C-alpha cells in the first residue's frame, strides 16, 4: 500500500481504525478503456481532421474540434478516477467496499466476523495469466459483495482469511464451553436480525430493548404477549406436577423405610 492510497482513502475509515491495505481492480481494466477510447475517439478523428478526409475541416471548425478533444479528455479522466476509486479498503476490524459512480461514493462496511466464505472467479486463461479475478465475499444468507477484475486476488484472499480467523479466535477462545459459544452465536444472530430487518417500524420499546442488548448484553424476549401467557401457564402446571411427583416419591420412600424396619 502506497502513501497516497492511505491518505486518499482515509476519508472512508473511522479515525480509530488503521488502514492495513487497499485492494484495487486490475490496471488492465483501465488500460483497455484508455486504449480503445484513444484509438477510436482521438487518433482516428484526429487523422481524418488533419488530412481533411471527406472535407472534415470545412465541416467542423478548429474550435469545435478542440472542444470535442476536451470532452474526450474529460471522459478518460472520469474513467480513470472511476477505476481508481472502486476499491476494498481493509482496516484492522472491517473491510470497506467503495463503489464510486457519478461523482458519489457508495460505501459498505463489513466486519470480518460477518464473513462466511470467500470465492475467487477467474474468467479465462488470459485473466489467470495476468493475475485478474473476481473476488466474492459472502455473508450470512444470500448477501455478498464483489471486487470485479481484482488485482492481486491471491493476496486479497490470504489477507481476508487471516483477518477472519483472527476475529473468530478473539470471539471464541479455546477455554470456552461449547454451550457458551452456542449462546453467544444465537445472541449475535438475534442482534443482527434486530438491527437489520426484524421490524419495519421503530417503537420506543424496540429501541430500549435494542439498546440494552447492544450495550449491556441483556437478552431480548421475542415472545408475543399471548405466547408468554401460554408459557407461564405451562410452567405452573409443570411445576405442580413436579411437586406432586416429589411428594409421592418422598412418601413412597418413607413407607419403604418404615416397612424395612
Derived from helix and strand composition plus strand pairing, the structural class reads alpha+beta
How many helices? 9
Q: Please state the average pLDDT score.
A: 76
Distance between the termini: 88 Å
Radius of gyration: 32 Å
Count all strands and give the number: 7
Secondary-structure element order, as H and E?
Answer: HEHHHEEEEHEEHHHH
The portion of residues forming beta strands comes to 15-25%
The main sheet orders its strands as: 1-2-3-4
* Percent helix: 55-70%
Largest sheet: 4 strands, antiparallel
**Uncertain spans, ≥5 residues at pLDDT below 50?**
none
Q: Looking at the structure, what is the overall shape? A: elongated
Keyword list:
261 residues, alpha+beta, 9 helices, 4-stranded antiparallel beta sheet, 3-stranded antiparallel beta sheet
In words, what does this structure look like?
It is a single chain. The protein has helices at residues 3-8, 27-50, 56-59, 62-85, 125-130, 153-171, 178-196, 204-216, 225-260, and strands at residues 19-24, 87-91, 94-101, 104-111, 117-121, 132-138, 144-151. It is α+β, with helices and mostly antiparallel strands and 261 residues long. The protein has a 4-stranded antiparallel sheet. A 3-stranded antiparallel sheet has the order 5-6-7. It is elongated.
